[in-house]
Description:
Low-confidence stretches of chain A: none
Radius of gyration of chain A: 21 Å
Largest interface: A-B, 49 and 50 residues
Strand order of the largest sheet of chain A: 1-4
Structural class of chain A: mainly alpha
Largest sheet of chain B: 2 strands, antiparallel
Shape of chain A: globular
Oligomer: heterodimer
Order of helices and strands of chain B: HHHHHEEHHHHHHH
Number of strands of chain B: 2
Largest sheet of chain A: 2 strands, antiparallel
Amino acid sequence: MFYREAGQFKTNYKADSAIFPIFQDRMGLTLIVAVAFIIPLFGSDFLINSFMIPFLIFSLAAIGLNILTGYCGQLSLGTGAFMGVGAYSCYKLATIFPDVNILIHILLSGFFAAGVGCVFGLPSLRIKGLYLAITTLAAQFFLEWAFIRIPWLYNYNDSGAIEVPQRTLFSVPITGASATPMARYYVILALVIGLTWIASNIIRGRIGRSWMMIRDMDIAAELMGIKPLNAKLSAFAMSSYFCGVAGALMVFMWLGAAEVESFDINQSFDILFMVIIGGMGSLIGCFLGAAFIFGLPIFVRAMPDMMGFAMNSATADHVSRMVIGGLIIFFLIVEPHGFARLWQITKEKLRTWPFPYA
Amino acid sequence: MDLLNQIFIEPFILIADIPDLFVQTIWEGFVAGILYALIALGFVLIFKASGVFNFAQGIMVVFAALALVSLHTKFGVPAWLALLMAIALMGVLAIGIEKIVLRPLVGQPDAILLMATIGLTLFLQGAGETIFGGEPQSMITEELGLPTGSTDVEMLGGRVIFQHIDVAAIVIAGLMVGGLAVFFSKTRIGRALRAVADDHQAALSVGISLNQIWVIVWFAAGIVALVTGIMWGARSDVSFALEVIALKALAVLILGGFTSIPGAIVGGLIIGIGEKVFEVYWGGIFGGGVEAWFAYVLALIFLLFRPQGLFGEKIIERV
């Protein structure tokens, strides 16, 4: 009843190949974007800074990993390191060319991550499945080591951390200490919307289809004329580009300063959780998964206070880890295809409600 | 030219000059390799029987060791009883994992099962920290009757130090692998295990209970984890930092192949000895700390030439 596409006729080719051919989808999306734009006017700085900004950044990283794992079927455990490549190259660019706009640096830094991703993607041409997942650990640990041992990357400073310089956009500070959460939020929101739009178009285009063919059965795809070299490496490049931009955003727009620990193996696992819990091969799943995996620890830690009994922070930390582990297993059992599948089921239900067999 | 000299000539001159240091390095690497091999063995056991890539093996090592130590030091249980209770705990864990985690997820893709074991890792880590405390503890080596101290052996114009606990670790690891080999080839359950590893459906059709086999296999992996935990804990502290070591066992696995027990052992030794020798003689060129990635890069280069690992079954693909 609420979600019926009946009567929505496509009368030209343009309408036929639109991203959102259904009216309700367009309305829903407009509503969500509108809400995203007006949230800062009502929400507190705390909400923006500690939930909305990281949520958007991690969604972008999850889209990156989803391109590789969900659409092209190559399991990767090196996402954190690729985010690190983006962050460190953005830092280098910003210090070498201080006059160029920071947004250009952030978008450019993704290309460095893409290059590194291609190099570490080369083994995927010979190695498959779980074996490949472990070889991506080589990328993770090698790059982590490089971020510590190559002092040129952090400009030889003593702390070994990269610190974000002050930069402005239209004379409004958007990075550094004096940038307001609201300014940073709008920049990130615009970037994430733009990049998601690009990703969704690439995925439903020729390249995206070749990825999905490789994922579904690589030998069959090869026999049908898909070059595995092009398909797999383009997936690694695209994926790393998104992860790299997400990493640059994470340091420049959220953390303000970062050390290697921000890009360690746990970061990679978190992003992988977002993709799997959200739903592999689904863009909306990336956002749902990111909100869940990032929001859950905050929620679990706040629980004892809300319930009215005290718990020291170390214990709360341990218990929250236990609860998160348990919940991840629970969600995998209940719905292995993630939130995206739940959303699909909901849409089916909404279509026929209140008649069960319409 | 200078770099070539550093790579190809100087390390070998150093080896020839101080041969006792070389022997010591090999020995250290050998012991580390045995422990990597033990962790990898736990992975292989579970992977063969259920096709689950058990990421939680590393945390099971920590969890088992932590339970053993805490039972003795915090709750005052005698060492032998604590050991039995730790074994029983691993049994309960095996049953719990099979009933709650694996059974509902039968037939899901590899990635989902992998994620479930990563979820299990988080759960066990949180549970271990909550129950036993997160701070590092020292292993109750003497209470368990394990030897301590060391012997210096004069050789090659110098002296090489052998820690007694390392020798004990190698002996116990050897006994355990031998025991597992006998168990697999001689007993009824062992044969059932091999049947399941060969073909799930064929095993089911001759009346082998998959669920029972999985419990046994997770229990066996739990005991391997406990032994690994005791040995590793005796060399350093029992703490959650051990988990990083467990990740290295993954590199061992791809070197040896996911399904091969000899592969796990040989792979463990190659990685253990290789990374120590590389760190000592070639690490300086890279600015040190190469132990963090050497295992993975070695495994990666190796896989490029042999995608199924050292002893893995040949991969045949059909459309």
